[in-house]
Each structure stands twice: as C-alpha cells, then as structure tokens.
Write a structure and sequence with these properties.
Length: about 475
C-alpha cells in the first residue's frame, strides 16, 4: 500500500501473580499454608541468589513480594510472539519450581503437594492480579488517553475474560439458585477507574509515573484490570488490541465519545451477563452494550489499519479472533472461539463434564475441574491434555516458549540484561540488576544504565561482559 507505515514498535510486558496452595496427599489438613508453601517454592532461588527477587537469563523478573503470590514479570517484548513465549516461559519456570519443591516434600515425608494456579482468586475469595505494561511516548494527553481506554478495559472481558464460576455468596448468581458462569474473576475486585494506587483502590489503570525508561521521552501504561489467561488466543487478543488502540490514539484517534457514566458498575454488569447485551449507561445519557462497545473499537481499528498501517500476521490473527469472539456472543455460539478464548474453552470443558455426569456448576468436582484449568503443573494442569486433543490452540509452539525461559527477546534491552545475568551465573559473579540497569557488585566496572528499552546492542555491556571474563557458553553480545 502506498504511503503506509509499519505499526510503531512498542515495549510490552506482562506481570502475573500466581496462586499457591499445598494440598494434602493423605487424610488431614493441608500440611502448610500459602505463605509457607511460597517460601518452600522459592528456596532454591534464595539459595542461589540470596534473594527472593531475581532477574533471569531470559531477562524476566521472578519474585516473591510481601504476601504469598509468586510473580513472574516477563522481559520487555516488542513482538507479540515474544509476549506469548515469555508468558508461557513464566508458567514453565513456576512449574519447574513446584516440581522441585514437591520432590523435596516427598523426600522429607511431608504429606502435601504444592500447586501453582494461574488464576486471580484464592479459595477465600482474595484476588491477585495480572498486569500489562505498555510503553507510550510522553505527551500531554496521557491522562486523556488513559481515561478514553476505560470503556475498552471495562468491556474487553467478554472476549478475554478467563471465565469464572461465580461464588455461591454472589448476589447476582442465576435466579434459579445455581451458580452462574461469568466472564471474569477480576471484575468484582476493581474499585476505581484510574488511580495511582494498586492495592487499596484497585484501579483499572495505574497512573504511578514509573516508566522504567527515559522519563523525558516515555511513560508506562500500567493496566491493572485483566484476568490471567491460559489460552494464548486470549493473551494475544488482549495485548494486540491494546497495542493497536494505543497506536490509534497516538495518531489522533478518538474514543472519548464512548465514555461510560459509571465504569465500576458497568464492569460488574458486563461480567455477569453472558449475552454481552446488557445495557450500560453512557456519559451522554444514551445506552450501549458491551458487544457494541467492542464492535465499535474493532471497527475504528480496522479503519485505522486500512488507512495504511502495516501490521504483523499475529495482529491480523488477533483482529480476526476479535471479530469471531463478538460473533460467538451475538449468535450465542461459543464454539466459534472455544479453542482460542479462555472463557469459551473453559465453558466447553465444564458444560461437557456436567452433561456427562448429569450434574451442574455447584458440584465441587466441577469447581476442581475449573481450578485444574489454571494449574500450571504438567501433571495436574489441563493445558497439555487440551492442546494434545486439539481443544486449545497455540499461536507460538512449545519449543519456542521453552527457549524463552533462558533466552531473552532479541530486539529489546532484555537481551543485554539476559546476557549479563547468564555470564554472572556461569562465572558465579554477583551482579545487581533492575529494569533500567546492571552493576557488578565488586565495583570493578562502572554501572550501566539501560534507559532505552528498544536498544538491544550496547558497547558498554560488551565491555562489562569482557571485564567479567569469558564464559564458555556465550558468544560476544555485540555481534
Ligand atoms: P510492582 O509489580 O512490584 O508494583 P512494577 O509494576 O514496576 O512493580 P514489575 O513486576 O517489576 O512491575 O514488572 C514490570 C513489567 O514492565 C515487566 O513485565 C517489564 O517487562 C515491563 N516493562 C519494563 N520496562 C518497561 C517499559 N519501559 N515500558 C513498558 N513496560 C516495561
Ligand atoms: Mg509486578
Ligand atoms: Mg505491576
């Protein structure tokens, strides 16, 4: 197309907090609580690094904050393939730690198995999150952009929600007294549209100004609302949609006309209506349904792309999935997306089980099946079985995801960080690392600040690696 331009590069990272439990393997109570299980899980990490907050050879951050939710924050990615591979790498890292911990428990006669769950709610109903991070150019109307994205963030759960059996105490469960299947685990936990606090106020977008990059040029859009996804299709659609919407806004696109009167009420109403057709009140006094909000966003993006933006094959795949996801709801035919979008994959799994066993969603066996969908261990989790049976579609193959555990994205500064971490691990040298820099703890070489996340080659890092000495595994980074 003449006059077209490639979609602007953007740094994207996904942080996932995991739920953890230790299930008894013999009669009796769980042998340890979640805090204890999390400490057990991180034991090898602490042994190796004297810290429960580390960066990996793959450029990611693996850590245990206060509380008991192990977290994996992916390295900075500027390709959708890398986001998917890195996100899956996080599951593999967690599964590996769980396997090691379970072997230790078995060896010491502790009657329990640790499970790691990529979901957003524990048995007591406490929530934990999955955050997305998008780099945006610093300009005057960031706040405006953040606000105009709210209708999208409120309603995107009809496509990328993970699906959830609403708790028995939920006042909006189906009128017949059965538990209802709803779109999202997260919607009922959000309290504020835009705010700088993440825990107390639970905003959809966190506006804390911490760009992890040159603050003169960039900001980081920190999206707090969103379910942790198992299906790669859901993750793909979630991040590709935001990537395209931000590009649209950065090039003069408008979404402000779709503002909702009461976003926090709308997010709950959207969650609990599986038709996608609940009426939401707009700021201008009219009404709109979640389906209409999403169709409008998709239409504007299709026009934006048609006006000369070259997108990747995965962006195209996401737009196609978006369209089919809306159609599945309009026609009430989840089978249109039941291999690609979590809510539909899980819905199919649970309804098939209910039909086979002549039961319903209140059955504890069904709740256990729903949990197994989110379990990341290869033995107990359902991912491998579903993928093997052709019931869960992959967009990036497993070998690539496995490589991402130790191999950072090649096109961002994560490449530099990963090289330093790898060399330090190989040579048993102590380094201090964060998102924007690396430093050798012995002070022999000056610290290196990596303020440009797009920069994957840096002579100062070559020099730092050189000063650390050669390891047998690494080629020079600058080549
Ligand atoms: P916390 O979760 O402890 O509140 P945080 O929000 O800074 O801190 P981290 O868990 O450290 O989050 O993860 C940061 C995420 O942001 C990572 O996934 C990383 O890849 C991504 N990221 C890093 N730099 C940038 C950037 N400049 N723009 C967008 N995303 C970034
Ligand atoms: Mg985090
Ligand atoms: Mg965060």
């Amino acid at each position: 197309m003449s006059g077209s331009r490639p979609l602007a590069r953007r740094i994207i990272g996904v942080e996932t907090e995991y739920g953890i439990t230790c299930a008894p393997t013999a009669d009796g109570p769980p042998p340890m609580n979640a805090d204890h299980a999390a400490r057990e899980l991180f034991d090898p990490v602490v042994q190796r690094s004297r810290s429960s907050n580390v960066f990996t050879r793959g450029g990611a951050r693996l850590y245990l904050d206060v509380g008991s939710h192990p977290e994996f924050a992916t390295a900075e990615c500027d390709r959708l393939e890398d986001v998917l591979a890195q996100d899956r790498a996080g599951e593999l890292v967690m599964a590996d730690l769980a396997e090691q911990a379970n072997a230790r428990l078995a060896a010491t006669g502790v009657p329990g198995r640790i499970h790691l769950l990529k979901n957003n709610r524990d048995a007591e109903g406490n929530g934990f999150g999955c955050h997305e991070n998008y780099l945006v150019r610093r300009r005057g109307d960031f706040w405006n952009d953040a606000r105009t994205l709210i209708p999208h963030l409120v309603t995107r759960q009809i496509l990328v929600g993970a699906g959830h059996i609403a708790a028995a105490g939920d006042t909006r469960r189906a009128a017949d007294g059965l538990r209802a299947y709803v779109f999202s685990q997260r919607a009922d936990q959000m309290w504020d549209a835009v705010s700088s606090a993440t825990t107390r106020a639970r905003p959809l977008i966190n506006t804390r100004d911490e760009p992890h990059a040159d603050a003169e040029r960039y900001r980081r859009m920190h999206v707090i609302v969103g379910d942790s996804n198992i299906a790669q299709g859901s993750t793909l659609l979630k991040v590709a949609a935001m990537d395209l919407l931000l590009d649209y806004l950065e090039h003069g696109g408008e979404l402000g006309d779709l503002a909702l009167a009461d976003p926090m009420r709308a997010i709950r109403d959207t969650c609990h209506d599986m038709s996608g057709g609940v009426l939401l009140e707009r700021s201008d006094g009219r009404t709109i349904t979640p389906l209409e909000v999403q169709a409008e966003h998709l239409g504007r993006l299709r026009d934006h792309v048609a006006q000369g933006v070259e997108v990747t094959a995965l962006h195209e795949a996401a737009l196609d999935l978006w369209e089919r996801g809306l159609q599945a709801l309009r026609l009430q035919q989840p089978e249109l997306v039941d291999k690609e979008l979590d809510w539909a994959v899980k819905h199919r799994l649970l309804t098939r089980y209910c039909q086979r066993h002549d039961t319903d969603l209140t059955d504890p066996r069904v709740s256990r099946l729903a949990l197994a969908y989110h379990d990341v261990s290869p033995g107990e989790g359902l991912r491998q079985r579903l993928e093997g049976a052709g019931l869960l579609r992959r967009f990036v193959d497993e070998a690539t995801c496995r490589r991402a555990v130790d191999t950072p994205p090649a096109t961002t500064r994560a490449r530099l960080r990963g090289a330093v971490v790898a060399r330090a691990e190989d040579l048993r040298r102590d380094v201090s690392v964060d998102w924007v820099g690396v430093r050798l703890d012995d002070g022999v070489c000056s610290p290196v600040t990596l303020s440009d996340p797009f920069c994957a080659v840096d002579e100062r890092i070559d020099a730092l690696l050189e000063s650390m000495g050669r390891s047998t595994t690494d080629p020079p980074i600058g080549v």
